[in-house]
Design a protein that fits this description.
CATH topology of the largest domain: Heat Shock Protein 90
Strand order of the largest sheet: 2-1-3-4-5
Helix content: 40-55%
Strand content: 15-25%
Distance between the termini: 45 Å
Largest sheet: 5 strands, parallel
Order of helices and strands: HEHEHEHEHEHHEHEEHEEHHEE
Number of helices: 11
Oligomer: single chain
């Protein structure tokens, strides 16, 4: 066996039960030496006698390597090797070919021309075979990791493009609605001094315009602030902040949006609260983003903000009264550009990511938890301006 520095089976075979090696030989007797090599390394082995079956096996199951006994021409080992290396879905699988010592040079050149990764003869030393075997496996591990990374990056690019398209679409809709409202107002104001006959409609139109302006301004600020955090261009204006004032300021920002949805926002504060240190505007923005997320859930009619202090830490809980966030979404809910289920009114996928970044830059933590007989709560934990020892709550 090789030294302990070699690639481990866990690295080579991340999925237990996956076929690790395929041996292609004309007979069981011819396959035995090759099988012994692989089993000696603790690998699972499948023996096939047909090149077509071997190709399908590699195509479907992506084994870690394939050994071909090319000593018998009936197997068609060289053609199989060329076929595997010429296919985009199988070219990365290492191919080891066994050839006869007789006529070694011509067979070796033929194997290399077919794309074989390693060529051995029956008289090859076991140490050389093992060393080459594990070197090929290590190379394949790196290839698969890079392949997975490329796929992940591709998925991220697709998500970002989808997000940009959604953002532009929403901004176009908002701007179009504002334009229509202003055209209506312009026509009404053309009466010059006369009281419009439909004053209630004019007032409603003005309120709609104000709401649209707020939504567009908030969206643009979220995008710009998130870009600042991503590029480490954040300047905090730190000051002592009353947690109650922070909650009241955030509530004032969202009250108009909540009322248009026939929803309410309430604040419940503990009797004794310590101030916190930080940037009021950024912390308010984080709190607003969390409140708006809760209000967007169709089943929530109320958003409750609970304020408390314990162990030198301040907790701000923002919870709905009905809907709960599914467990599978919680793992990604703070990721940039992630958007929840389709039945939930869509945000832009940056609000929660920005809230997390703001909380963490203030030395805090944020997590999600369920409230008994209610919905899901976002919990913000921030250091209090209090001399008592801090005992951070596990998130």
């Amino acid at each position: 066996m090789l030294s302990s520095q070699r690639t481990t089976r866990h690295d080579v075979l991340p999925n237990p039960g996956q076929i690790e090696g395929v041996v292609v030989a004309s007979t069981r007797q011819a396959a035995r030496p090759l099988v012994d090599v692989l089993k000696g390394e603790g690998m699972n082995v499948q023996v096939v006698g047909s090149p077509d079956v071997a190709f399908e096996e590699v195509l479907l199951h992506r084994p870690n390597l394939i050994m071909i006994d090319a000593r018998t021409k009936a197997v068609g080992g060289f053609d199989l090797c060329a076929r595997l290396k010429g296919n985009v879905r199988t070219h990365f699988v290492p191919v080891i070919m066994w050839i006869d010592a007789k006529g070694w040079e011509s067979s070796y050149l033929q194997a290399v021309s077919a794309g074989a990764d390693a060529v051995f003869a029956p008289n090859s030393s076991p140490e050389e075979v093992r060393a080459r075997l594990w070197a090929l496996l290590r190379t394949q591990v790196l290839y698969r990791r890079e392949e997975k990374k490329r796929l992940s990056q591709g998925s991220s690019i697709v998500e970002r493009r989808r997000w940009v398209g959604g953002l532009i679409h929403d901004l176009q809709n908002s701007i179009g609605a504002m334009q229509a409202n202003f055209e209506f107002l312009a026509q009404e104001m053309a009466t010059r001094g006369r009281v419009p006959s439909n004053k209630s409609e004019v007032d409603e139109c003005i309120q709609d315009c104000r709401a649209l302006f707020r939504d567009v301004a908030r969206t643009l600020r979220t995008v710009l602030d998130f870009e600042r955090f991503e590029s480490d261009r954040v300047l905090l204006r730190e000051e002592k902040i009353s947690v109650s004032d922070l909650a009241e300021k955030a509530k004032a920002v969202v009250d108009a949006s909540a009322s248009t949805r026939n929803k309410t926002v309430s604040i419940e504060a503990a009797s004794s609260l310590h101030p916190i240190q930080g940037d009021l505007d950024y912390l308010c923005e984080a709190t607003v983003n969390l409140i708006l997320y809760v209000l967007r859930q169709p089943g929530n009619r109320q958003c409750r903000i609970r304020l408390s202090c314990a162990g030198g830490l301040t907790h701000i809980s923002i919870a709905g009264d009905h809907d709960r966030i599914p467990e599978e979404q919680r793992k990604r809910i703070f990721e940039p550009y992630f958007q929840a289920a389709k039945h939930i009114p869509r945000g832009h996928g940056l609000g929660l990511a920005l809230a997390k970044a703001i909380v963490e830059i203030h030395g805090g933590a944020i997590w999600v938890e369920d409230i008994p007989h209610a919905g899901t709560a976002f919990v913000i934990e921030l250091p209090s301006c209090d001399p008592s020892p801090r005992q951070r709550t596990p998130g």
